[in-house]
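Raw record, unedited: FHA domain-containing protein
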Amino acid sequence: MKLDTFACLYVIRGEPFRSGTCLNLTAAETVVGRASNSYSPDFAFSNAFISRKHIVIRKEEERAVLYDLGSTHGTEINGVIVEPNQPYPLKSFDIIKLAKGMTVLHFSYLFADQTLEFEPLSITQRWDEPNGPLTIHWEKRECVVDGKRIAMSEKEFLLIQLLYDHANRLVPIAEIKQAVWPERSVGEDGVPDVTMDELNALVYRIRKKYGKDTFLISAVRGSGYVLELHNK
């Protein structure tokens, strides 16, 4: 049964779709998986690790509810493994990973998000762990990367800690500004007066200072940031 668009999936990573593609949910039941000669799901990804019928999203009492259909390589929502055939009600900003991150989707009820573009601030085609071992000493405000001790600046510490505490979930821009720049004057929107150039520059410095694969950070332009962390 076809309905009006009630929610959207945005592709962060998943061939053959371009990063940022909006997949409108317009049916009472939408199957996501991999196409074969005998079957084609509603939204088909080409990666071989995606099951033919991987997940289904059903509209139940005005809410989108996700079910893993017994997929071979699993599904995660915000870093939590989904049990097969169990209902998982979705919320805006949820991050859905299929097959351990081979495909990554951002769920949203917010239709203003139609214009969002996903801007990778890491190598978004990577889904495995960073090459070098990473240890974070929060009390000392330092990271140890490949045996090298690196001191964090105050802003680096505040941003990394915030993203780490919310790993595998999208952290809204307003929340980041409030946590990282609490000393700034507040604008009319109630959020500290921090430009996106300042925020992007801070993320760039973190990537350059600690190594581009140490913190796998992706930006959802106009919405927030996600730290991909598979062992948390």
